[in-house]
């Protein structure tokens, strides 16, 4: 499970150093793709295979499902981190997420999310209060 918040930097070649605590989990390969709110989703390869399998279950008669899969999968890039735990984020994905140098990597359970640090701080500021004030069940069975 991926947890926490980390603030690595992208190098001049667009490479990201994975936080040390996640390197072993990602050493066999990972997939980086577009996520919601203009962040990137980063999955270990085996977890991405599960996500792709769930997508295959979606009805191809659903335009919304087709649209989602097209955007999600067309932006996906499989990568293998080097011995130092770095991998290159393709230019099109860096552009999509507005990534420059300062990035924030957050644990989101089965995946990591990569955010432009300014965008993450704005998102968190806008949503933290509503999180604190949540009085009804958002995720079934959680509370």
Kindly describe this structure.
- Keywords: Cytoplasm, DNA-binding, Repeat, Transcription, Transcription regulation.
- InterPro entries: MraZ, MraZ_C, MraZ_dom, MraZ_N, MraZ_sf, SpoVT-AbrB_dom, SpoVT-AbrB_sf.
- Residues 5-47, 76-119 form the SpoVT-AbrB domain.
- This is Transcriptional regulator MraZ.
- It comes from Intrasporangium calvum.
- With 143 residues, the chain is an alpha+beta fold.
- 38% of the residues lie in helices and 22% in strands.
- The chain has five helices and eight strands, in the order ββαββααββαββα.
- It has helices at 20-26, 45-56, 63-74, 91-97, 117-132, and strands spanning 5-6, 15-17, 30-34, 40-44, 77-79, 86-88, 103-107, 112-116.
- Strands 1-7-8-4-3-5 form a six-stranded antiparallel beta sheet. It has a two-stranded antiparallel ribbon with strand order 2-6.
- A hairpin with a 5-residue loop joins strand 3 (30-34) and strand 4.
- The protein is globular, with a radius of gyration of 16 Å.
- It starts with a strand and ends in an 11-residue tail after the last helix.
- The model has no long low-confidence stretch (mean pLDDT 93).
Keyword list:
two-stranded antiparallel sheet; six-stranded antiparallel sheet; alpha+beta; single chain; 143 residues
């Amino acid at each position: 499970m991926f947890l926490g918040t980390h603030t690595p930097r992208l190098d001049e070649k667009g490479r990201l150093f994975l936080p040390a605590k996640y390197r072993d989990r990602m050493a066999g390969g990972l997939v980086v793709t577009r996520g919601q709110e203009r962040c990137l989703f980063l999955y270990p390869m085996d977890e991405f295979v599960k996500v792709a399998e769930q997508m295959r279950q979606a009805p191809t008669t659903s335009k919304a499902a087709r649209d989602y899969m097209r955007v999600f999968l067309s932006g996906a890039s499989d990568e293998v981190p080097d011995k130092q735990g770095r991998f290159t984020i393709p230019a099109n994905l860096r552009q999509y997420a507005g990534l420059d140098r300062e990035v924030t990597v957050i644990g989101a359970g089965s995946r990591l999310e990569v955010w432009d640090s300014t965008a993450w701080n704005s998102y968190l500021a806008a949503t933290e209060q509503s999180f604190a004030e949540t009085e009804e069940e958002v995720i079934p069975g959680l509370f």
